[in-house]
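This protein record is not my work; I was only asked to verify it. The record follows directly below this note.
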Amino acid sequence: MDLTQGTQKEKNARAKKMMLWFGIVSLLMGFAGWTSAFIVSSSREDWLNNFQLPTAFFYSTVVLILSSLTYIQAKRLVNKDAQKAATSWLYGTLLLGIIFIILQFTGFNEIIAQGYYFTGPTSNITMSYIFLIAAVHIVHVIAGMISLIVVLVRQQKGKYTSDNMLGMELGATFWHFLDLLWVYLMLFFYFF
């Protein structure tokens, strides 16, 4: 397939999708580096081996998976030109994103309640990695929520239709990536 062929709209869509995927790949490389450093650091004498992940992190995983499902439903409804219902599902996705972040901070509080901090005399290298990786993911979820708000505003203005969904598709792809990334991180922390 020749990427230089097609209408200007098709070329624009391909370029935007490619840029998103470049961004996703760079994020994957960053998180791969942090999880690799986590593995390498686990051989240290001061590594904490008996730590349990906060319960709030497990709840937040369920919430984030549900938010991907609500985003999928919103896209389906736009394809059926059910605009008001699609907008409601997008609001649901936004609400679930907010709940996810609240649960993440609840998880941080659970870790602190156990006496572990990100830095300082009571910090631990294991917990510092978990704090760092989860916090960086939260920053990206906030970016995803900003993207979602843009999608929501455009949806309310009637910008998306069954034949014009590029912005919603890009936003959904990024959101689903963040979801899958968090599931990977939880599995990584749980089994490693």
